[in-house]
Structure formats: structure tokens, C-alpha cells
UniProtKB/TrEMBL annotation, chain A:
UniProt name for this protein: DUF112 domain-containing protein
Highest taxon of the lineage: Bacteria
Taxonomic lineage from the root: Bacteria, Pseudomonadati, Pseudomonadota, Alphaproteobacteria, Rhodobacterales
Signal peptide (UniProt feature, chain positions): none
Domain (DUF112) ranges: 18-437
Stretches that traverse the bilayer: 20-47, 59-80, 107-136, 148-176, 196-219, 252-276, 353-376, 388-404, 410-425, 432-449, 469-486
PANTHER family: TRICARBOXYLIC TRANSPORT PROTEIN
UniProt keyword annotations, A-Z: Membrane, Transmembrane, Transmembrane helix
InterPro entries cross-referenced by the UniProt entry: DUF112_TM
Automatic annotation (TrEMBL), chain B:
Organism, as annotated: Actibacterium mucosum KCTC 23349
Sorted UniProt keywords: Signal
Family: Belongs to the UPF0065 (bug) family.
Protein name: ABC transporter substrate-binding protein
PANTHER family to which the protein is assigned, alphabetical: BLR1237 PROTEIN (PTHR42928:SF5), TRICARBOXYLATE-BINDING PROTEIN (PTHR42928)
Family matches, as Gene3D superfamilies: Bordetella uptake gene, domain 1, Periplasmic binding protein-like II
Residues in the signal sequence: 1-22
Length: 495, 317
């Protein structure tokens, strides 16, 4: 494949190649920054345009929109406390407090640099280690995935700002919401009360946008909480200086690694990676104590991991023909339309195309830095409009975005309901991130638990006796729960 | 008296209005509904068809997505709508004939005016390349030697992949000695087939070619050209109605569409499917074109609906 690199680069440096790279990244950032659009919808919007293009530019356009949208999600998360997608929900936790302190530009700077590094490293890993990592993906059967998700669930404790009990409750509500709809093993309908609108369950994006964005609007409108501040001041991205990185590099490296590995495993995704990385950062970073109060390491943990997922998700897609997430599934379908059968021989049969895709992906991540800075400068004046107009605009964007996803008016009701419930819960001091974690991880946790029980004939202990990877991850989950408890007991302060 | 006159007048008005509607049809854009997400197989097929359909019918035709509930959300929303010919859905064998028999959805066999079928591919049962099973006889022997050990996968309960497995193993009388592991979509299932957590899977030829897999039988009425050595289910000893299984799909309108409008849509569909552009699209995407006109498709759809009741019973759904 490396021998095809010169030809691949000539494709990328043609006029069409450059246009696709730049415009795709810009579109991705803009669409990702809009609440309710998100990566999947952004890619779906662009898809029809790729049908008339030739192979390499079509895939590169989709990749640029994908990578751009994952980064773009952080802009709305930091500036208006509204994650464009579930994968940037963890970025809100420290990004918005930083912005409230008047450091919005610097918060975005951390997010930008972390995103670029996460994306670039994942591109290098993709180019040089795709076959080896694909073998890792095959090691993760239902039982191993279950243990990983179990470990992910322990993040709820880390992201519960304020009360852990309230965080656990919010997490349980999230898991419960995810059980509505079709039973994944038996196909029967659960908690739908015979209403066919609920057959597909609650739309994740509608709930996330409701509990984060709409509830924020309600809180500002109700104006009863004294902690509500004015809109943040922002004049463009401020990149962190070299010396500010002191003591933060290890956390960055760890976050990139977590994003890469989780991206490789099908059925997990960027939101899972961002939360797990955030929790790990809080546990091990030397600045962990400040997480949730506007600590740059929190932003770095989340953003480096979710951008590293993009390259990771391409590993099983390109090496095995198995999509890593919903977006890479769209890319595989696009390849099929262009007459290419995805599968284990994809790289062997199309060396130039794959080299162009991999090199293009690297360039896209490089472009994130200048384009991100440019676009946020353009976006800065928007934040200076009156708060009432801003809130109205957010509501309109949410409504349009959510309706666009599935064309189902019912999703708007779900979003509105989630907004009201989120508003009430936040007023009582419930953190919202655990609810999102519960809803994101709940379905995979249930599916893999029940798949595992089918494979082991109903024996839960057999999950760990015959599966070393599952055992290690399971022990890590137990440790993640018990260690903070032990530590605080030693200090003599339980709580 | 007065009431009767009014009723007559109203009836005349309705007939007249609908007659006019059929004559002027189409005068608005036509919505082609994909009951799955953008970027999926159904969505892409409709987007490939839409420009040619639009050209043939002489009106704008656009694709919209309404995903969820294995396609039942869109179908439930479309049933009972005014059959004016401006809303059509592309429905597969599972959305139109299987889901309504296993779920409590508001539509059934009589909810639709079938317009045309567009594609149909037989399904195949396949194993991983490094699997020890060379034939279905090997599989039967292995299952009898170790009952309850071997696992077949599916892309979800009630999906065509599930029914393929049920047809195979219920047809051979060994399903009670096997385990079923459902996944969410074919992608994760073929990953586990490669990894060895499941031993058998069934899908169309297009999907089988995604990995290093070996087909053991095909649910077609004759052997397929690309695999002349692979026996049909009938040859292996599976009896009707479990011996043939196709992943088919076509355009449906709500029940009660006027015959004139149906005829116009049918003609446009035939022209679109036959167009060079769509033929090229089908060749690229591996779509097996299978056109049927409205009357033929209606009969086929109803026969499938009844035949699949047997399958559903065998699957225990």
C-alpha cells in the first residue's frame, strides 16, 4: 500500500482533492457545531453529493465531514454548554465552566489541540497498524464487550458532579429509557403501551439535546437560579502555550490511546471513549481534583479520545469490511455504490484508493487546526447577540436537527419531554452526563450480557473463567468502584 | 330528503374530485419513503432510483427517511394515509409480511396498494472459510454429535437473516439442538462469524462476499450462476415453504389507490427500473433486479404473506 502513496498524494493534491478536503472539513465543523445535527446526520446530508463523484474524493469528503463534525461538537459544548452530539457531552463538563470564567478562547484552544493530536495519532496508527488492531477487534466477542461496557459504566461515578447518589439515579434513568422498544433478543415490545411510535425506542439524540440544550434554555428562561451567568465572552481560539502543557502530556497520551483502542472495537463508539477517557483522566491526572470545575485536562481527556475514535473506527472498516460505527457503515455503503466490495481484501485489491483515504485522513486532521481557528473567529460575533435571540436560535436548531434525523414528529415530543424532565432534574441538582452514559451504554450492556448468557448456557461466572480479557476488564471495573471508597475511608471521611 | 340529497351530492363531488385528481396526476412532488436510516441499503437503492422515477413520471420525486422499529415506524405512519399517490414507501419482505405478523402494528395484509417490485435476492447459508463443514450433511452430523453446542447468528429477531437460519435448521429438524445468537445488524454478526463465536449465518450473496466465507446452500428455486456447486435448499432436503427465501422489496402506496394512479406509477416504475442509469447503479451495488407489475406484485406479496406465517411459527416468534 505504501508504494501506492505517490499516486494517492497526486489525487489529493489535485483541484478536486483539495476542494473536497477543505470544504468537507469546513462543512463538518459547522454541522458538528450545530446542536442536534451531529456526525451521523452531517454525513447523511453530504452523502447524496458523493454519488456523482469518483471513488477517492467521495470517501474523502465523507471522512472530512466526519472528522470535522466530531471536532465541531466541542465548539457548542464549550461556548453554550450544548453538546452537538453525545460524544462531546463530556467536553461540556469542564469546557463550559472554563468559558464561564472568561477563558472560552483558551478552552477551545485546548479542545482544538487535543482534537488535532488525537486525530493525527489515530491516522498514523491506522496507516501502520490496521491489520494488527483488526485482530484485536476479533478478540472482542460479546463477553469481552460486556466487560468493557461494565467498566465504562463506572464512569458515572466520575462524572457525577455534586452528589454521587443523584448521579447513579440519573444513570439508572438513562438505562431504563434505553430499554423502551424492541427486545434485542426476543424481538418483543417493551414499555411501549401498544404505541407504535415507541417501537423504535426513545431517540438518543432527541433525549441528549433535550436534557442538555433545551433544559439549558428553560433554566435561562426561568431565571430563578442565581448561578446562571451571562453568555460567555469570546474572541476566537487562544492556543495553550508550551509551558502550560507541563504535567499534562501523560494525560493526553493516555486519552489518545483510549480513543484509538475503543474506536477499533465495533459497537462502542466516540461517546463511550470520551466518557471512559474522562473518568480515567479524573482518576490518574495530577490535576484530577479540578475535574468538573473547568480543568483543561478534562477537555483534553474528552476531545483527544473522541477524535482518536475516528481513525480507530476506520480500522475494522478498512481491514475487515465491518463498520466500526454508524458513520463508517455509511462509508462502506458508499464504497459498494462505487463498485467496490468491502472486505478483508479491500486494501489488497485497491491499494491506491486506500492510500489516498489514509493520507487524506491525515491531512484532514492537520486542516482541523487552521480551519477550526478560522471558523471560531467567524462564529465569535454570533455569541454577542442578545441572549433571548441566542436561546431562540438554539431551540430552532434543535427542532430542525432532530426532525431531520428520522423525519418523525414524535422525536420532537421526546425532545420536549426530555427538556422538561432535564430542567426539573437539574434544578434538583441531578447531573445530566450520567443519564446520557446510561442511555448510550445501556443497550450494548444489555445486548452483550444476554448474548454472553446464551453462549455460556446461562452461567455468569463463566464470563470470567474462560475469557482472560473479560476477567481483567471486570476486575478493573470493580477496582474503579472500590478504590475511591477505600481511599476516602483511609482518610476517615466516607462520602 | 334533504339529507339524502346532500349525501348524493357529496358522493358525486367525491367521485368527481378523485376523477379529476387521477387525470391531473401528478401535479406535486412525490415522496419516496425509506423506512431505514440514510446511508443504508434501502436508502441508497431509493436514491439510485429516484432520479429515473422522477423522469419517467414527469414530476419531482424525493427520498425521505423515517427510520425505526425495523421499518415498522414508517409503515405504521403511512398506513391509513390518504391514498393520493404522493406518498410511497419502499418496503422489504420483512417490513411488509413478517413484522406485521409478529408485532402489534396498525397495518396488515390489506393495508397496501402494491405498485411494483424492484429487487429480490435469494439468501444463502454460509460458514467461515476455515470451518470444518463442507456440506449440510456435515452440519447435521455435527449437531447430532454435540446437541446444544453449535450457534447460528442473525441480524436481529424476525430479520430475513433469522428466517434463513430457521428455514435451514427447522427444515432439517435440528433447530432444537442449536443456539440462536441475535446481533444488531449483519455487520456485527459477520464479525463474530469470522471470530468463531457463531458457526453459521445466512444473508444475500452480496453480504457473503464481504468476508472469507463459504456458502453451503442457497434458498433459490435453482442453483445460482456464481456458485454452481452450491446446492439449493430443496436439493438438501428442505421442503416448501421453507425451501425458498428472497430478500425482496418494492414500492407500496396506502390501500385504496385509484387504478389510474396505480397504472401511472407502475409504468413509471417499470421505465425507471429499465433505465440505463438504474441498471448501472444495480450492477455497481450488487442489486439483483426483479421487476413485477402491480397485479403480479400484489399476488406475489399476498402469497409471501401467507407462506411466511409458517416460517414465523417455526421460528417461535
Amino acid at each position: 500500500m505504501l508504494s501506492a502513496l505517490p499516486e494517492a498524494i497526486s489525487i489529493l493534491l489535485s483541484l478536486e482533492g483539495l476542494l473536497v478536503l477543505t470544504l468537507g472539513t469546513i462543512l463538518g465543523i459547522v454541522l458538528g457545531a450545530m446542536p442536534g445535527i451531529g456526525s451521523t446526520v452531517a454525513v447523511a446530508i453530504i452523502l447524496p453529493f458523493t454519488l456523482t463523484m469518483s471513488q477517492a474524493p467521495a470517501i474523502i469528503l465523507l471522512l472530512a465531514v466526519y472528522a470535522g463534525s466530531v471536532y465541531g461538537g466541542s465548539i457548542a459544548a464549550i461556548l453554550i454548554n450544548t453538546p452537538g452530539t453525545p460524544q462531546s457531552a463530556a467536553t461540556c463538563l469542564d469546557g463550559y465552566p472554563m468559558a464561564q470564567r472568561g477563558e472560552a478562547g483558551l478552552a477551545l484552544g485546548w479542545a482544538t489541540v487535543a482534537s488535532v493530536i488525537g486525530g493525527l495519532v489515530s491516522a498514523v496508527v491506522l496507516i501502520f497498524a490496521a491489520p494488527q488492531l483488526a485482530a484485536l477487534a476479533l478478540e472482542f466477542g460479546p463477553i469481552e464487550t460486556f466487560s468493557l461496557i461494565l467498566l465504562g459504566m463506572t464512569c458515572i461515578v466520575s462524572v457525577s458532579t455534586g452528589s454521587v447518589v443523584k448521579g447513579l439515579l440519573a444513570g439508572m434513568i438513562g438505562i431504563f429509557l434505553s430499554t423502551v422498544g424492541g427486545d434485542p433478543i426476543l424481538g418483543e415490545m417493551r414499555f411501549t403501551f401498544g404505541n407504535w411510535q415507541l417501537f423504535a425506542g426513545f431517540n438518543l439524540l432527541a433525549v441528549v439535546i433535550g436534557v442538555f440544550a433545551l433544559s439549558e434554555v428553560f433554566i435561562r428562561a426561568s431565571n430563578q437560579i442565581s448561578t446562571v451567568s451571562e453568555l460567555v465572552s469570546f474572541n476566537g481560539v487562544v492556543l495553550p502555550r508550551m509551558k502550560m502543557w507541563k504535567g499534562r502530556v501523560r494525560n493526553l497520551a493516555k486519552s489518545v490511546a483510549i480513543g484509538n483502542v475503543i474506536g477499533v472495537l465495533p459497537g462502542t463508539g466516540a461517546a463511550t471513549a470520551a466518557f471512559i477517557s474522562y473518568a480515567e483522566g479524573r482518576r490518574s491526572s495530577r490535576n484530577g481534583g479540578g475535574f468538573g470545575k473547568g480543568e483543561p485536562d478534562g477537555i483534553v481527556s474528552s476531545e483527544a479520545a473522541n477524535n482518536a475514535v475516528t481513525g480507530g473506527a476506520l480500522v475494522p472498516t478498512m481491514a475487515l469490511g465491518i463498520p466500526g460505527d454508524a458513520i463508517t457503515a455509511v462509508m462502506l455503503a458508499t464504497l459498494t455504490l462505487h463498485g467496490i466490495t468491502p472486505g478483508p481484501k479491500l486494501v489488497e485489491d485497491n491499494p491506491t484508493l486506500i492510500a489516498a483515504i489514509f493520507a487524506g485522513f491525515f491531512i484532514i486532521n492537520l486542516l482541523l487546526l487552521p480551519l477550526g481557528m478560522l471558523l471560531s473567529r467567524v462564529a465569535a460575533p454570533i455569541l454577542r447577540i442578545r441572549e433571548a435571540f441566542m436561546m431562540t436560535a438554539i431551540v430552532i436548531l434543535c427542532v430542525v436537527g432532530i426532525y431531520f434525523v428520522r423525519g418523525n414528529p414524535f422525536d420532537l415530543l421526546v425532545m420536549g419531554g426530555a427538556g422538561v424532565v432535564g430542567f426539573l432534574m437539574r434544578r434538583q441538582g441531578f447531573p445530566m452526563a450520567p443519564l446520557v452514559i446510561g442511555m448510550v451504554l445501556g443497550p450494548t450492556l444489555e445486548l452483550t450480557l444476554r448474548q454472553g448468557l446464551i453462549l455460556t448456557d446461562g452461567s455468569f461466572p463463566a464470563f470470567f473463567t474462560g475469557h482472560p480479557i473479560a476477567l481483567v476488564l471486570g476486575l478493573a471495573a470493580v477496582a474503579a468502584l472500590l478504590l475511591p471508597l477505600v481511599r476516602s475511608m483511609r482518610k476517615g471521611t466516607v462520602g | 330528503m334533504k339529507l339524502k340529497t346532500f349525501a348524493t351530492a357529496a358522493a358525486v363531488a367525491v367521485v368527481a374530485a378523485s376523477g379529476v385528481a387521477a387525470e391531473g396526476y401528478p401535479e406535486r412532488p412525490i415522496n419516496l419513503i425509506a423506512p431505514f436510516n440514510a446511508g443504508g441499503g434501502t436508502d441508497l437503492l431509493l436514491r439510485g432510483l429516484a432520479p429515473h422515477f422522477s423522469e419517467a413520471i414527469g414530476a419531482n420525486a424525493f427520498v425521505s427517511n423515517m427510520a425505526g422499529g425495523s421499518g415498522t415506524v414508517a409503515a405504521s405512519a403511512l398506513q391509513g394515509q390518504r391514498p393520493d399517490g404522493y406518498q410511497l414507501a419502499y418496503m422489504s419482505v420483512t417490513v411488509s409480511t413478517i413484522q406485521p405478523q409478529i408485532k402489534n402494528v396498525p397495518y396488515g395484509i390489506d393495508s397496501w396498494t402494491p405498485i411494483c417490485s424492484i429487487a429480490a435476492s435469494p439468501t444463502m447459508l454460509f460458514v467461515s472459510d476455515d470451518s470444518p463443514y463442507q456440506s449440510m450433511d456435515d452440519v447435521i452430523a455435527a449437531v447430532n454429535a454435540a446437541p446444544g453446542e453449535l450457534v447460528f447468528g442473525s441480524s436481529g429477531p424476525g430479520a430475513i437473516t433469522h428466517l434463513t437460519m430457521v428455514s435451514a435448521f427447522a427444515g432439517l429438524g435440528i433447530i432444537d439442538d442449536m443456539k440462536h445468537l441475535p446481533f444488531q445488524g449483519s455487520g456485527p454478526a459477520i464479525k463474530e462469524l469470522t471470530a468463531g463465536n457463531i458457526q453459521f449465518f445466512g444473508d444475500t450473496e452480496l453480504l457473503m462476499k464481504r468476508g472469507d466465507f463459504r456458502p453451503l446452500m442457497v434458498f433459490n428455486n435453482e442453483r445460482v450462476e456464481s456458485f454452481p456447486d452450491v446446492p439449493t435448499a430443496t436439493e438438501v432436503g428442505i421442503e416448501a415453504p421453507l425451501n425458498e427465501l428472497y430478500l425482496w422489496g418494492g414500492l407500496f402506496a396506502p390501500a385504496g389507490l385509484e387504478p389510474e394512479v396505480t397504472a401511472k406509477l407502475e409504468a413509471a416504475c417499470e421505465a425507471a427500473v429499465a433505465s440505463d442509469g438504474f441498471q448501472q447503479f444495480a450492477a455497481n451495488s450488487g442489486t439483483v433486479i426483479n421487476y413485477r407489475g402491480a397485479a403480479e406484485f400484489d399476488a406475489f406479496y399476498r402469497a409471501q404473506y401467507t407462506a411466511n406465517a409458517t416460517l414465523i411459527e417455526a421460528a417461535g416468534l
